[in-house]
Amino acid sequence: MSLLRAIGIEAGVGSVTACRNLDLTLEPGEVWSVLGRNGVGKTTLLLALAGLRPLRGGEIVLGGESLDRLSRKERARRLGILFQHSETLFSTRVVDAVMTGRHPWVSGWQGPSRQDEEIVQEQLCRVGLESFSERMVTTLSGGERRRMEIAALGAQQTPVVLLDEPVNHLDLHYQVDLMSAMLKEWQRRGCAVMMVMHDLNLALRFSNRLLLLFGDGETCQGDVDSVATEATLTRLLGHPLRQISAGTDAIFWPL
Q: How many domains does the chain have?
């Protein structure tokens, strides 16, 4: 059974239409990248898939059930989202911030279990913040905070993972190493991942499926090898690109 299905959806905000009559299926182990120019509605689409922005039409099915019929807690057990920007309005320890990822699974009267604490520590280690547990969130750099947010999402352990600009504020080695580690873990667990990306070549490196947003609701989707062509990506991004071989991989270079 597919983990998430969008059936004939239209999503947008104001005068922007991200997609129109879009059918989309996220299967276990798939990693999708959503690509398009600024302002075409990539974030809007991601929020709509998460049930955080109302659809203009169509339906989203999450784990075999209509998203609209699921409680907030059940949604949070099935789908996790990393926002493009987040603000911490109060000071808390890093370990407590990451523990928020376990809230959908924790009984309100019982509190976190030993297993919850172990999951949180495992995720802190995965993003290289194991020595930051007692630090206050407000003392973190932008990159450290981003890694903390990814750790919290990892601790949530949902089968569907949505990421909006996951490499924001991250140095190059964290972009590559952290993405590799987290995506490998999510794929091992049979998750479906969809991420909004601005770095074209990083998206192609880590994805096996692409969803292209051209603007005014027009979309294109498919396997990376079939969709990522010079002509299609040049039209998508509004700038001429040339495909260059890099070992066994291919990169796209702006002319």
A: 1
pLDDT in tens, 151-209: 999 999 999 999 999 998 899 988 999 899 999 999 999 999 999 999 999 999 999 99
* Phi, then psi, of 236 in degrees rounded to 5: -60, -45
- Structure tokens belonging to residue 50: 């998460």
Cβ-contact 60, 7 below 8 angstroms: yes
Q: What is the pTM of this model?
A: 0.95
Residue 215 β-bridge partners: 218
Tens digit of each residue's pLDDT (9 = 90 or more) over 35-55 = 999 999 999 999 999 999 999
CA–CA separation, 27 and 75 (whole Å): 17
CATH number (domain holding residue 165): 3.40.50.300
